[in-house]
Design goal:
Layout lengths: L1 E7 L5 E5 L22 E3 L10 H7 L8 H17 L9 E2 L10 E8 L2 E13 L9 E9 L1 E5 H13 L7 E3 L5 E5 L3 E14 L2 E13 L5 E4 L1
Parallel strand pairs: 1-7, 2-11
Antiparallel strand pairs: 3-9, 4-5, 5-6, 6-7, 8-10, 9-11, 11-12, 12-13
Length: about 230
């Protein structure tokens, strides 16, 4: 029996812009009269971990009994696709262009469909050997899974931005554009949507607050990022 071990390759809110005399920068007041136009979706800071918890993914996509290498691969990719989306949703069993051959160097393309959006992956068998959990007659194989495109959901964007705000020294509400429920983005793509955080400046004891746009970008590993 062969078992797979996966090496996945893809997955401050308050900024001071200036200061002057008479400002107590250690205790800035709560933002009020924020200048600029706030984007429509309010985002509250959160420390909730991003992604779909493993238990929820396992309930949505249970592991098949005694899976073949191809079934194991598709099971793993279903879980990775759900975690990428950041929200549970309808997901199909997936398919691979070729049945998985566990020989080192084997490569193929597999596709998982999430909420009607096809997410393509390139998988490669990278090594084989006896791992710490190998049975008497089992061999482990390791592989990489690299997404060619990324499924993006509104819930995933909002939750990730809430987590970013929640990790700031000063936690304050943020804003985002209204984002489509689900769509496909390219690796390295900058989305046309924006989120906002509050920045502040102070001069002679007078604090001023304004909205600052952040660009939303898919990095080269397929992860969602917010860029100054």
């Amino acid at each position: 029996m062969k078992r797979a071990l996966v090496l996945t390759v893809a997955a401050t809110a308050l900024v001071a812009t200036g200061c002057g005399r008479g400002c107590d920068l250690s205790k800035p007041p709560k933002p009020s009269a924020v200048q600029g136009k706030g984007r429509p979706v309010r985002i509250q800071p959160s420390e909730k971990l991003i992604g779909v918890p493993w238990a929820e993914r396992d309930a949505a996509v249970p592991k098949p009994a005694d899976p073949s290498p191809t079934e194991q691969m598709l099971y793993d990719l279903q879980h990775q696709t759900l975690n990428m989306a950041g929200a549970l949703g309808e997901i199909d069993a997936g398919r691979c262009d070729k049945d998985i051959d566990t020989k080192v160097g084997f490569t193929t393309r597999c596709t998982v469909t999430y909420e009607g959006v096809e997410v393509p992956w390139i998988v490669e068998i990278t090594s084989m050997g006896r791992g710490p959990y190998s049975g008497s007659f089992s061999v482990d194989y390791w592989y990489t899974a690299r997404p060619l495109s990324v499924v993006v959901t509104a819930r995933g964007v909002y939750d990730r931005f809430a987590w970013k705000l929640g990790g700031a020294l000063e936690e304050h509400e943020g804003r985002c554009d209204k984002i489509p429920d689900v769509f496909l983005a390219k690796i390295g793509q900058e989305l046309s949507y924006r989120c906002q955080k509050i920045e502040w400046s102070c001069d002679n004891g007078d604090f001023r607050f304004s909205w600052r746009d952040l660009r939303i970008r898919i990095n080269d590993k397929g992860h969602l990022t917010f860029v100054e």
